[in-house]
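Take a protein:
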Amino acid sequence: MEIATFGNGCFWCTEAVFQQLKGVEKVESGYAGGHVENPTYNQVCSATTGHAEVLQITYDPAVISYEELLRVFWETHDPTTLNRQGNDVGPQYRSVIFYHNEEQKQLAEKYKLALDDSGAFDDPIVTTIEPLTNYYPAENYHQNYFLNNGSQPYCAYVVRPKVEKFRKVFKDKLKPEYS
């Protein structure tokens, strides 16, 4: 098993996407990249800790590659908005790839450069690529949030449409229970 760590907006939305991929064994919501040890959700939301909301994804590289995870990362959020994803605003929602080794760093930089060169986005990509220096799991109530709270208004109006769009684009990569 290997681990990938991505920040691409609200972890309630992004966790629900990565959990459905074949080869992904575990997705944990958490915080990374800041200067406060063991931050709480309220502290992270205050925009004073330097942390981003992130996912720590444990995956089987024999089933799904890091490159495929990067593709899902890039295609399921807007990497051109600084400290913002939709109505979620603040540095905790920044677009960031935290790499665990040199290979992940090189693959992430290569993918970002290819996207920039392709003109896939009208605006410049602001995603940062940084070494993972710290990671803290989010509180238990954030884990499996969409699975446990799918009928809540935020989930119904924000998360569900994102997940449905993801399922259409990545239908060949879904676990059988989501196909």
Summary: The mean pLDDT is 95. The two ends are 24 Å apart (CA to CA). The beta strands are 2-8, 24-32, 52-59, 84-85, 88-89, 95-99, 128-131, 135-137. The first strand starts at residue 2 and ends at 8.
